[in-house]
# Entry
Amino acid sequence: MPSSKAALLSKIKNAKASVKVAPKQQEQVSSEEKKKPVKVTQNQVPKKEDKKRKLEVQEEEEEEDVQLMGADDIDLDDFSDEDDMGDNDEFDEELEDDDFFTKKKPTTTSSTKSNKQQPTKKRKQEEDEDDEDDDEEEEQVNKKKKKVFSEENFFENDEDEDDDFSEYTEEERKRLEQLSGMERERLAQIEEESRLEMADDATRQEKPTVMANYLEDHEELPEAGEDQDIGIAGVTEDLTKIHERIQENLAVLANFKDLREDGFTREDYLNLLKTDLSLYYGYNSELIDVFASMFSLPELIEFLEANEKPRPLTIRSNILKTRRRELAQNLINRGINLDPLDKWSKAGLKIYDANVPVGATPEYLAGHYMLQGASSFLPVMALAPKENEKVIDMAAAPGGKTTYLSALMKNTGVIFANDVNVDRTKALIANIHRMGCRNCIVANYDGRDMPQILPTKVDRVLLDAPCTGLGVISRDPSIKSQKGKKDIELLCKLQRELILAAIDCVDADSETGGYIVYSTCSVSVDENEAVVNYALKKRHVKIVPTGLQFGTPGFIKIGERHFDPSLKLTMRYFPHVHNMDGFYVCKLKKLKNGKKLSEEEQVREEKNEQRIQKDKSDEKNRRIRDQKDREDKNKKLLEEAIKLANGNEQAGIELFQKRKEELSLSRKKFKTNKRSEDKFRPIHERKKSGNRKQKGENMNYV
Ligand SMILES: C[S@@+](CC[C@H](N)C(=O)[O-])C[C@H]1O[C@@H](n2cnc3c(N)ncnc32)[C@H](O)[C@@H]1O
# Structure
């Protein structure tokens, strides 16, 4: 340490002493109290013994909790499926002798709760480690401090001095008393300056050197959206190093003003971060861009991390064939370790582990359940079809949602289960049969054509649209590298066309329904909010609440893009927030049949309508005029005929009628001649003469 700094610190010690402890107070402190351990300040670590005791108490309490909630004592009412059964009397009656109430689940179930126990142990271990860390840290801090002050040779024998300045030698106290107020102020100022200087030193020492380190190993910084070689040409750096750089970069971006390295912009750091994220997690740069535009940086990391872990395995019990508690019991007997899915579902079961393949049990083959991700329940619950309704599942294969719709409708009404992919309709048909659904008609059309094909409008439509699958990356990691902006673009065009078709299939005047649910298993805004926003502009629909108990509201603003405020009624589900597949659910109510036009289209349409009306009235006036002309002509002819009959009215009328017949005959002859001539003339000329003929007819008509 430079000697000037040592001198400065020595002054500070004196100043601290003078400011902190007034001589009078000092006298009041008994010698015994002086020997007491220094009081614990905010930054100090609590004593190990206290911490240990606290942990023991905490652990005892948690053990009690775990015992109370132990696997053997699971409340079997949790398996009730009454809600989903609706008012179906057959299922509503309680099973009085249901041994589910008395039987305990096999002890293997305890692993279902081991999640609850684990944290306690883990926490204790962590706390112990923390304790050790804290102690080590404390020791190190003390060592450092001792070192600093021993350099000053000031309080070198006083181990506690830097924790508290309450103990001073007689000599020091005398010196303190001699200090004038001004000196104290001056020294306080010096202390402050020195403190700032030291803080600055510390910051400088801790400042991460992300960019400098990167440029030591690389020729230049990565450009925005640049994909780095990974796998094929070999990973350019080891992942640990990339991970460390990600952490440091995040720290810099979180405190950019203080931690940035000179000469680098925020954008440089962001580009490097995105490149590192795509290398570390194995995404193409386009997808990282898509996600980075949706989440804050810490949330982006959480999302990417969540995609690395599997989601819980869930099944949906089929109330057309069984009750959930019955199914649960049967599966437990087969060694499957499960629990009710959650409060919000009366049909779902969460599987922890199984000794048998869950997709091949006799119960599965008999259609007692469907293997289905928890988030796939949600669009069907939002659509909430009623018994005896007409419903379309526009993109239905392999039928997870169709079969749920069928169960909620208790096999009544009709479901048009459609899918454009003929191979996938085979799986759809198989599932419909296995699950005992008798109200489904399977169709194989492009959903966009359905409004024209279906003979009738329906009460509700589910459009579980084809999408990029950006919400189910943990199930299919190939999405990370294989999907990009082009896929999003193509799919959102199809999604827009499908959503309009779905709306056009619904009867706005349906007495029980008039609803459309749009869902995807993608998290991208383009495939979700942007599609619904488009539909709001094109059709007479409004967004209504989904009726789902949880979820994150849809985006109404992202970057520069703004959507209709009602989009906050739509629901999003994220792997890192809800521990389920990423999903989007929007419920629409159809207000009026027909298209909704843009302002420009409306003006055009109105002008067109006015023109049609004008044409109609012109035609009417022309007819009246023609009629009047004919009457005038006839009157003139009759007068001429009477004149020719020398005033004999009767003879004049006869002459007039004869003349009319002659005119009529000559007109017929003219027509026939024209037609036979026409046969030998080219079509375009015939048309022309036809036009002329019409005009001529009008002129000759009497
Ligand atoms: C997300 S999957 C549907 C999953 C299904 N709803 C379920 O729960 O089992 C999307 C489906 O849309 C189908 N599809 C794609 N384009 C379509 C179109 N133009 N019309 C109808 N279906 C389409 C795909 O074949 C695919 O089966």
Notes: The chain has four domains: 4-104+129-136, 210-282, 373-596, 602-695.
